[in-house]
Predict the structure.
Amino acid sequence: MKQNAIIQISSFLLLTGIMLSCGPREYPKIPLDQLEPKLKRTGSVIAKDILQSFKHANGANYLLDKDYTTPLVHARIKVNGRFYTESYSMIDLIVGKVNNYSLFQVVDKGLIKTMRYKLNTENENLKFVELKIDVNIDYQLADYYLYVSTNDGTLKRQNILPRAVK
């Protein structure tokens, strides 16, 4: 009898743990006015360099000369160079000229801070363009994404850069 009760309690706790761990996880957002100046400055430099890399002759390889790429990002660009080259060539066609960018949200994921930038472009067919960068605690680039949504709904927050294998 005791053994059945223990098994039932253990099963309940295990099931509860699984349900809690599988549920949606909402990370806290850092108010922009409370953002560490160094993180804000570093994020802005990285975002500017990524936007520069879109137009640069070396493409994503332009970022490899920077001292803030993590080994994971560095290796991914080196190994998947062809995919980055193809993606970068599409950016000019899809996004066009970026007039400016502005930080609109920072999400605290613990060791990683996700910084989201709205890009203002000349392409009137785009509803929204977002550059999202993951910056690790040592202020290094851990990942980056370029999301695009079109006015006609063809693309809905679609990342047009190669995806990381995680």
About this structure: The chain has one domain: 28-159. The helical segments are 2-22, 37-55, 61-64, 71-79, 81-94. The longest strand covers residues 98-108.
